[in-house]
């Protein structure tokens, strides 16, 4: 497996950031870090459900992460277009299927890091190993400098993993 993304494949962090912004009620620059993390989490779950309809956190483990975000900021879900997270996830599955119908990457970890960077770890469906991407958030004007894609043997600490039991 290559350490670098194919020229045809768009950076996962950029894709997820775009999907997450679709569920924000206001521009990302005016959104709290918890609100942004909630939007990224929903985009993460929606992406994986679109790639693997029988997997992808069908039982709602992501709700535990949302509860933790709400504990830090009780208003974070009000920063989304709606508070019905399952409906938002279903709404995000549609653009994934339409825009990236053959993209089979499964997201393992997705979250915000220091300096407002989006961190995504993924692997191809049925493949082993993890690739990851970093993208400056919001804006992404230094995207090329902040992007990394390489194999990584372990999961990052402190990110959401809604596909695994907690």
Structure, described:
The protein is of the alpha+beta class and 166 residues long. The protein has one domain. Helices cover 36% and strands 14% of the residues. It has a three-stranded antiparallel beta sheet. A hairpin with a 6-residue loop joins strand 2 and strand 3 (131-136). Helix 1 crosses helix 2 (33-51) and helix 2 packs across helix 4. The radius of gyration is 15 Å and the shape is globular. The N and C termini lie far apart (30 Å).
**CA radius of gyration:** 15 Å
State the secondary-structure class. Answer: alpha+beta
Overall, the morphology is globular
What is the straight-line distance between the termini? 30 Å
Give the helix tally: 5
Question: Which strand order does the major sheet show?
Answer: 1-2-3
* Main sheet record: 3 strands, antiparallel
Query: What proportion of the residues is helical, as a percent range?
Result: 25-40%
Q: Work out the oligomeric state of the chains in this entry.
A: single chain
Write the layout of secondary structure elements.
Elements: H1 12-22, H2 33-51, H3 62-72, H4 85-99, E1 105-113, E2 117-124, E3 131-136, H5 143-146
Antiparallel strand pairs: 1-2, 2-3
Helix pairs in contact: 1-2, 2-3, 2-4
What can be said about this structure in brief?
It is built from five helices and three strands, in the order ααααβββα.
Keywords:
166 residues; 5 helices; 36% helix; alpha+beta
